[in-house]
Amino acid sequence: MARPAAVARSPIPAFGSTDVVAGWEVSQTSRTSQGATLELIDCMPLTKVLVRGAASGAVADLLKTPFGRASRTLSGVLTTACRPEEWTLYAVPGSAPRLIDKVTKRVPAGELVTLLDITHGRTLVRLTGSRGPDVLCKLCGIDLSDAVTPTGAALRTSVARLTVELVRDDRNGVCSYLMSCDRSYGDYFFGALLDAGTEFAIEPQGFVLPGI
Amino acid sequence: MRLSLRPGEVIDRSRPLRFTWNGHDYPAFLGDTISSALAASGERVMSRSFKYSRPRGVLTADSLDPGCIVQVGDEPNVRASHRRVEDGMIASPQNVWPSLRFDVKVANRAVSRFLSAGFYYKTFMKPQRLWPAYEAVLKRFASGGVISNRPAAGYFDKRYAHPDVVVAGGGPAGMSAAVAAAEAGAQVMLVESEHELGGHLRWGGAHELSVLAELKAAVSATNSIEVLIDSVVAGRYDGNFLAILQRSLPGVTERLIKARAKTLIVAPGLIERPYVFAGNDLPGVMLSGAARRLINLWAVKPGTRAVVFTANSSGDAAAQDLEGAGVEVCCVEDARRGGDVVRASGSATLQSVECGDGRTYQCDLLVTATGWTAPTSLLNMAGDKPTYDERAARFFPCSLPEDVLATGGITGDGSLEQILEHAAHTGRLAAGRARVAGGRLRKGVPHAAPTDSPVAEEQSNAITALPVDAHVALFRGRTHGFVDFSEDVSSKELEAAVAEGYSSIELAKRYTTATMGSAQGKLEVVNAVAVVAAATESTITETGTTVWRPPYAPITLGALAGRTLEPVRYSPMQSWHEARGATPLVAGAWIRPDHYGNPTAEVRNVRSNVGLIDVTPLGKFDLRGPDAAKLLSQLYVNKWAKLAVGSVRYGVMCAEDGVVLDDGVTGRLSDDNYLMTATSSGADTLLEWAESWLQTEHPEWRVHITPVTSDFASINVAGPKSRTLLERLVENVDLSAEAFPYMRVRRGRVAGVEDCLMWRIGFTGELSFELHVPSSYGLHVWESLMEQGADLGIAPFGIEAQRILRLEKGHLIVGQDTDGLTRAYSAELDWAIKLDKEDFSGKPELSWQAERSDWPKLVGLRPEDVTVVPPEASQIVHDGAIAGRITSSRMSPTLGRPICLGLVAPHLAEPGTELSIVLPAGVRARAVVTEHLAHFDPEGQRLRG
Amino acid sequence: MSGRDRISRALTPVTGRLSGKPYKSIRNTLGKGTGEKRGQARYSAFDLFRRGFTKDPWPPVWREHELSSSYDVVVVGGGVHGLAIAYYLAHRHGITNVCVLDKSYVGSGGSGRNTAIIRSNYLTPDGVRFYDRSVKLYENLSAELNFNVMFSQRGHLTLAHNDSSLRTMRWRAEVNKLENIDSEVIGPEEIKKLVPYLDVSSEPRYPILGALYHPPGGIIRHDAVVWGYARGADTAGVHIHQNTEVVGINVSSGRVTGVRTNRGDISAPIVVNATAGWASLISNMVGVRMPITTSPLQAAVTEPVKPFLNTVVVSGSLHVYMSQTDRGELVFGASVDPFPSYSMRGSLDFIEGLASHVLELMPALSKMRVLRQWAGLCDMTPDYSPIMGFTPVEGFLVDVGWGTYGFKAGPVSGEAMAQLIADNKTPQIIEAFALERFGTGELLGEKGAASVGH
Amino acid sequence: MILIPCPNCGPRNASEFRYVGESIARPDPNSATQEQWRAYLYERVNPSGWTTESWFHRAGCGRYFKIERDTNSNEVRAVRLEPAAATKGES
Ligand SMILES: Cc1cc2nc3c(=O)[nH]c(=O)nc-3n(C[C@H](O)[C@H](O)[C@H](O)COP(=O)(O)OP(=O)(O)OC[C@H]3O[C@@H](n4cnc5c(N)ncnc54)[C@H](O)[C@@H]3O)c2cc1C
Ligand SMILES: NC(=O)c1ccc[n+]([C@@H]2O[C@H](COP(=O)([O-])OP(=O)(O)OC[C@H]3O[C@@H](n4cnc5c(N)ncnc54)[C@H](O)[C@@H]3O)[C@@H](O)[C@H]2O)c1
Ligand SMILES: Cc1cc2nc3c(=O)[nH]c(=O)nc-3n(C[C@H](O)[C@H](O)[C@H](O)COP(=O)(O)O)c2cc1C
Ligand SMILES: [Zn+2]
Question: Which of B254, B583, B893, C103 could form a disulfide with B559 if both were Cys (CB 3.0 to 4.6 A apart)?
Answer without folding.
Answer: B254
